[in-house]
């Protein structure tokens, strides 16, 4: 798979950080996109969980999956061999591109902890200043 859907601190709309710069250098921006799910405020970053609602983000084409994904896995706290202790889980899901309404399959990092007592972004849009 060559696509990655991001919805938080890796988006180009957010203030640039070391990891968003890494993504910009190793991927090509495709389009804004949406996915079915719910978005929660974890800390200074959000977490997407499967469910009802719409979450907005961006899709990128990755230059070299085999080199880039392991580094992004580390950033997201995804432990390939340890789903119980992973902060996020990487999974393939369908996203809808905004300009064309085309449905594509992309890698997505889903939050892997309890959402009890977390604030939901009802708009489905991550706002880094909240």
In CATH terms, the superfamily is Gamma-glutamyl cyclotransferase-like
What does the main sheet amount to?
Answer: 6 strands, antiparallel
Named CATH architecture: Roll
The number of helices is 2
CATH class wording: Alpha Beta
Helix content: 10-25%
**What is the total number of structural domains?**
1
Shape annotation: globular
Q: Can you count the beta strands?
A: 6
Distance between the termini: 33 Å
CATH topology: Hypothetical upf0131 protein ytfp
How much of the polypeptide forms β-strand, as a percent range? 35-45%
Please state the structural category.
Answer: alpha+beta
Mean pLDDT: 93
Order of helices and strands: EHEEHEEE
Low-confidence stretches: none
Which terms would index this structure?
alpha+beta, Hypothetical upf0131 protein ytfp, six-stranded antiparallel beta sheet, 2 helices, globular
Give an account of the 3D structure.
This protein is an alpha+beta fold and 130 residues long. The protein has a single domain, classed as Roll (Hypothetical upf0131 protein ytfp), CATH 3.10.490. The chain has two helices and six strands; from the N terminus they run E-H-E-E-H-E-E-E. Strands 1, 2, 3, 4, 5 and 6 form a six-stranded antiparallel beta sheet that branches. The longest helix is centred in the middle third of the chain and has 12 residues, at 65-76. It is globular, with a radius of gyration of 14 Å. The termini are far apart.
